[in-house]
């Protein structure tokens, strides 16, 4: 199949509407990733933007900053995996064929 065949029947106004709908859906999809047994929590939206970072404030943070950074990264990665699955299941119908 020629990829340009998809463009022949493409309506720009429909594409703009689909893009707007997709962006709105992604704004409303959220996930919370945890690490360290819930010590660190990172909340992302469907655009993979960090909305919030929560952590238990204690002496550990001051004593082992490198491990604390690793926990933040692990929590982000956990939330990112969840977002990926939610996006696949919730917005796949809004995308052009072959994008997801």
CATH topology of one domain: Ybab, Chain: A
- Biggest pleated sheet: 3 strands, antiparallel
Low-confidence stretches: none
The CATH architecture designation of one domain is 2-Layer Sandwich
Helix content: 40-55%
Mean pLDDT, to the nearest integer, reads: 86
Structure classification: alpha+beta
Architecture overview:
- The chain has helices at 5-8, 12-28, 59-63, 65-91; strands spanning 30-35, 40-45, 50-55.
- The protein is of the alpha+beta class and 100 residues long.
- It has a domain at 26-88: Nucleoid-associated protein YbaB-like domain (Ybab, Chain: A, 2-Layer Sandwich).
- The longest helix is centred in the C-terminal third of the chain and has 27 residues, at 65-91.
- The chain is elongated.
Blueprint (SSEs and pairs):
Elements: H1 5-8, H2 12-28, E1 30-35, E2 40-45, E3 50-55, H3 59-63, H4 65-91
Antiparallel strand pairs: 1-2, 2-3
Sum up the structure in keywords.
100 residues, Ybab, Chain: A, three-stranded antiparallel sheet
Briefly say what this structure is.
With about 100 residues, this protein is of the alpha+beta class. Helix content is about 55%, strand content about 20%. The longest helix is centred in the C-terminal third of the chain and has 27 residues, at about 65-90.
């Amino acid at each position: 199949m020629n990829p340009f065949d998809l463009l022949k029947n493409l309506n720009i106004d429909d594409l703009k509407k689909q893009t707007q709908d997709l962006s709105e859906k992604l704004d409303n999809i959220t996930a919370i990733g945890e690490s360290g047994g819930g010590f660190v929590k990172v909340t992302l939206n469907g655009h993979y933007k960090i909305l919030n970072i929560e952590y238990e404030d204690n002496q550990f943070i001051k004593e082992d900053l490198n491990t604390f950074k690793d926990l933040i990264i692990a929590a982000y990665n956990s939330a990112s995996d969840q977002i990926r699955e939610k996006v696949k299941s919730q917005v796949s119908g809004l995308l052009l064929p072959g994008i997801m």
